[in-house]
């Protein structure tokens, strides 16, 4: 047994922590919710220079060939910012999808530019919000003599604003889910930012967009199972990001209990306030160790699917509930838009939904462990 | 026992018809403004004008405070009449408390309890007739829960008080006419005995109001810079501010009761019936049904708590812990329902639907979870008061302050 990070991991962590301090000061990220501009090309460029985009990919495709844990320590620190932008969507999830299922030609042309931040590929998967899974894919591909036409509306696409292209799930005429790469500037693509209690989310409409056969991922568009395989490697990185974000919420909240004086004493002396902090800490630690164990399984080559779902459920729950408990401590001042809590609060709600709610992942965990008869 | 809120005794049967006809006339051509009765951050000028106009018309008939004497802007009617008004207004999504933004519903009963006869005659009618807008101005920046530690000073100078200090997170996006304010009249005095309550005209020189942009909408910081407030605006007498505050807070902290029920669950069911996954409405999914059932039960519980408090208040039955119980339950229910909404409808629960009003908007309902944990005290101070009213660990139980 050994719960230490390696020397390399300590170093990666420090570089990321310094980056967050230097590039994403708290006052900057609290602007998110006001101006809705989460995509900052400057940050993506710097992240690419530091080798964080596609960092788990082999070097021949532009990656750094690092382990899942190496990557996770970086994303955990980025979560502390929280650093916004398509570092996960493009740099992890799309990169893994293309790597898992792309043709050799697609890997060679798409991945190096993605790693340099010159292209940003954003997954656009479900059409319906009330469910996560192949059943919620409704965008259709209809055959034409030379290829396909794609039509449909992806209601909540995370990081859509940053995309240079979308990796879209669509239903073929045979009813199979496949994936196609669609350039953002293709005729028939329109993007409308959503307004609500979330960040970085937009609706992407495909109106009879022409798709040629070589835009399909892999030789024939791959399948939902491809996405599942890519998620097995990617979700733990998102979980680590949420762990870092929860850690930040916990730290700033504990510090506040020492400095805020009400009824003549620091609020941390009130047992009720202590209870809120204890609850954040439990959410934080259960998310952290579920995530690390999952990553250890992956890096050790053990079966990890159930663990991946467990970690995503616990980390999303943890960030969401941890943030709510923190709100209880900060009370009024924490609900001011200029306060860091607001950035965390909207992000926690957004990530609670992104790639499936905790409830959904709990069910997938059970399905992975105890497959259902039908 | 009778839970029916519209079980009209004979003396109000005609009154219900009168109110129903009158309301239908008011809403003619404005039907789309139904449900516009919350503390909205998204209303337009048309809506505000309509709502404020309606409040003034209700006020002119004495119907906003029907049980008050006519000389105080009421209509000398009974609680049964008041129930008729509450239920008829609710058919339009309105309730008597919030016809437009003013805290009249809390301020008026406190004035009745603590104002002198002259003050009641002068200050009450404009408030009860909805001619003016009053904000409650209590919280200060250095620690809102401890309002007795009030740093806003009001020092007597002849027949004026000179007010200096700062209040925060108060009011809303439209300007007030009066600031209903707790001040410290004697900085050296004993805690709880050094306070006073002032009804401060908002247009006095030295009052400055700055918007704050917050999760639940616009709130404000109010600065008082040597504001000269005539002494006639002192409510409840010198150094009696804490008692006035106690009445005020009891009403604010759930002790006022409510007849209307939260309409959210009906909209959730409508959504679940209209949203299909894999060809089936999600209303048929047992998991969704479980979640809707939990929401419904908790909202029913809240409705019953509100109804009970309302009855006890007007039947003059003691209700020692009703207020903090309602308040704490409502806060936590909103937080739980926010999560349930997200579990049922995914990201649909987070998108603002500008075509419906806030009270029935899912995104608003989700945001209200963390956003309303602290309005008018925190969940922790709710539980603190709750425990005192139960007499936990004490030989005596604390009584609820008197309200009217
Ligand atoms: C949406 C909204 C609307 C509002 N509207 C108004 C308004 O119209 N008028 C107005 O005057 N104010 C208003 N407020 C302010 C509100 O009343 C305060 O936020 C509230 O009283 C708490 O004060 P605070 O935020 O300074 O928290 P603090 O007092 O700083 O509390 C910080 C933490 O300490 C805990 N704590 C404090 N004292 C105790 C104790 N004795 N025991 C245990 N725990 C304790 C709190 O529960 C909290 O967890 C509003 C606030 C919000 C969020």
Counting structural domains of chain A, the number is: 3
Oligomer: heterodimer
Query: Approximately what portion of the residues of chain B adopt beta-strand conformation?
Result: 15-25%
Pattern of helices and strands of chain A? HHHHHHHEEEEEEEHEEHHHH
Average of the residue pLDDT scores of chain B: 92
CATH class bucket of the largest domain in chain A: Mainly Alpha
Helix coverage percent of chain B: 40-55%
Mind summarizing the main beta sheet of chain B? 4 strands, mixed
Q: What is the global morphology of chain A?
A: globular
Write the CATH homologous superfamily of the largest domain in chain B: Butyryl-CoA Dehydrogenase, subunit A, domain 3
The CATH architecture designation of the largest domain in chain A is Up-down Bundle
Order of helices and strands of chain B: HHHHHEEEEEEEEHHEEHHHH
Largest sheet of chain A: 4 strands, antiparallel
What small molecules does this complex bind?
flavin-adenine dinucleotide
Reported CATH architecture of the largest domain in chain B:
Up-down Bundle
**How many E strands of chain A?**
9
Protein structure class of chain B: alpha+beta
* CATH uppermost class of the largest domain in chain B: Mainly Alpha
**Any low-confidence stretches of chain B, pLDDT <50, length ≥5?**
none
**Beginning-to-end CA distance, first to last residue of chain B:** 24 Å
Describe this structure in words.
The complex is a heterodimer of chains A (374) and B (404). Chain A is α+β, with helices and mostly antiparallel strands. Chain A folds into 3 domains: 109 residues, Acyl-CoA dehydrogenase/oxidase, N-terminal domain (Butyryl-Coa Dehydrogenase, subunit A, domain 1, Orthogonal Bundle), CATH 1.10.540.10; 95 residues, Beta Barrel (Butyryl-CoA Dehydrogenase, subunit A, domain 2); 146 residues, Butyryl-CoA Dehydrogenase, subunit A, domain 3 (Up-down Bundle). Chain A is built from 12 helices and 9 strands. Chain A has a 4-stranded antiparallel sheet with strand order 2-3-7-6, with no helix packed on it. In chain A, strand 2 and strand 3 form a beta hairpin. Chain B is α+β, with helices and mostly antiparallel strands and 404 residues long. Chain B has 3 domains: 91 residues, no CATH class; 107 residues, Butyryl-CoA Dehydrogenase, subunit A, domain 2; 134 residues, Butyryl-CoA Dehydrogenase, subunit A, domain 3, CATH 1.20.140. Chain B has a 4-stranded mixed sheet with strand order 1-4-5-8. Chain B has a 4-stranded antiparallel sheet with strand order 2-3-7-6, with no helix packed on it. In chain B, strands 9-10 form a two-stranded antiparallel ribbon. The longest helix of chain B is centred in the C-terminal third of the chain and has 29 residues. Chain B is globular. Chains A and B meet through strand 8, helix 10 and helix 11 of A and strand 6, helix 9, helix 10 and helix 11 of B. The complex binds flavin-adenine dinucleotide (FAD). Flavin-adenine dinucleotide sits at the interface of chains B and A.
